């Protein structure tokens, strides 16, 4: 029952984050420990305002906060966004293939890259869940895997944007693909930064406890 509730809570938070990425967070007490914690963590990202806006909704509904939890949440939102982008590009690619459009190959390449990114993000989420469950000796192994997969997903998104940008396809279609994939790249970038912050703190804490 508890697991079901947490899954439902995450779904609601993800939808709110997806629906209103630019929503103001003034309703959140700026003096609260949760808000201060999130703002401090998000300063390590390339898109701190996006990070704060999304994670502040999470802070209002979750009772426990940690760098690992914030990295997990941002990773899951990144995966949701990647799947939305993937679904849109699948639709565009099918229409272009049917019309035998010259731009089809560029969109197909983008779809391949986004699909690979979805796989990389999915693996990263599973790997992050394994951290601390298999002993400290395996931490570096899991850490390296997550960093590699997130970096690959970020490269996939960037490559897709670059490939589509160089094609003379319809302005609206191009703009939609770029906007959706750029959003994936921004959240993936933030997820990588938050994960690196968690990993650095984890390793520093382990070093201080050694005799």
Automatic annotation (TrEMBL):
UniProtKB keywords: Apoplast, Disulfide bond, Secreted, Signal
InterPro entries reported for this sequence: Invertase/methylesterase_inhib, Pectinesterase_inhib_dom, PME_Inhibitor
Alphabetized Pfam families for the sequence: PMEI (PF04043)
Domain Pectinesterase inhibitor: 33-194
Species of the source: Camellia sinensis var. sinensis (China tea)
GO MF annotation list: enzyme inhibitor activity
Name used for this protein in its record: Pectinesterase inhibitor domain-containing protein
NCBIfam families per record: PME_inhib (TIGR01614)
Keyword Secreted: yes
Superkingdom of origin: Eukaryota
Family: Belongs to the PMEI family.
PANTHER family, A to Z: PECTINESTERASE INHIBITOR-LIKE, PLANT INVERTASE_PECTIN METHYLESTERASE INHIBITOR
Subcellular location: Secreted, Extracellular space, Apoplast
One term under GO cellular component: apoplast
Signal peptide as annotated in the record: 1-19
